[in-house]
Amino acid sequence: MSAKSYLHIVAAVLTAQDGRILASTRPKGRSMSNRWEFPGGKVESGEGRWTALVRELQEELDLTPTRGRPLIRLKHDYPDGPSVDLDVWRVWDWQGVPRAREGQVFDWFEGDALTELNFLAANTPIVAAARLPDRYLITPDWGDASLIPDGVEAAARGGVGLIQLRGAWLKTGAAESWVSEAVSRARALGTKVVVNGDVDLARAWGADGVHLSARAASVLEQRPMPRPALVGVSCHSAEELRQAEALGADFATLGHVRTTPSHPHQPPLGEATFFALAEDARIPVYAIGGMGTDDIPCLQSRSIQGVAAIRGLWPERDKV
Ligand SMILES: Nc1nc2c([nH]c(=O)n2[C@H]2C[C@H](O)[C@@H](COP(=O)(O)OP(=O)(O)OP(=O)(O)O)O2)c(=O)[nH]1
User: Fold this and answer.
1) What reaction gets catalysed by this protein (predicted)?
2) Which of 8, 15, 85, 226 is 20 to 30 A distant from 171 in Cα terms?
3) By residue range, what is the domain housing residue 215?
């Protein structure tokens, strides 16, 4: 049997300096018209990916992108339409002012507002990737939770866009005040905060979402919090990734990629297995386990969201 053929599509998540993202409708007369999408189109035969993206943005919006990187790549089979291999890029810099050249409607949206638009069916994970940053910090499990708000603020100031609050301290009496302080300081800097494991606490404390273990995710039939809340799942295998996708999770962490002090006796996935699993995933994936910011360029060159880490991202104690 011959392998199914997929149309290679490039699309751009144009991200302005204030963080807003451009989305546009498919023009009348096209398939799936009026649904929202990210600007882009088919790669022509023999054309490079970036060249195709530049051409599509010039044709559709009169813009020339000048800086970008792969964001997410996934395949989708439309039941009554094409099978597409969506190769989506984050673009931060461009020349020109966008103008609709094909009768489409476009606008700039905050990340959360994107979840309210009627996007093409393939785009749910793309919207998740567009909303998520490349660095995901998990708080260390310290006895002294009073350091959490300052640490969270320092990390947010350093550009960490997503933080998971985790640790035994979450169950202590003082936790609520540390969490609400951390959430409000992070939010003021545009950083989101999710709570490890406990959906009720995440809701009660006004966090931006929850991060679940694969085991906790496996007993759920649907997302425990509706969008725009974020739902993440810790995955270690293809099976757990499929489970997270079926649940409608916004993202997964996958690891551990390398041996780490926190898992000294468990064999790591290793980079080859990590990349094989992550590139096959249909939701954004963060590499976890011995990873740091130095790994981000390599991960991004392969359309992987970024890194999740404790040690690799928690600010030095003297900066807290
Ligand atoms: N540009 C773009 N295309 C997307 C996105 N999501 C998604 O499923 N697609 C699909 C829709 C189309 O089947 C294909 C894009 O091809 P295209 O935009 O060149 O298609 P087209 O205008 O020639 O229209 P048609 O052939 O589908 O009628 O990829 C997205 O976010 N942006």
Assistant:
1) 8-oxo-GTP + H2O = 8-oxo-GMP + diphosphate + H(+); 8-oxo-dGTP + H2O = 8-oxo-dGMP + diphosphate + H(+)
2) 226
3) 135-319
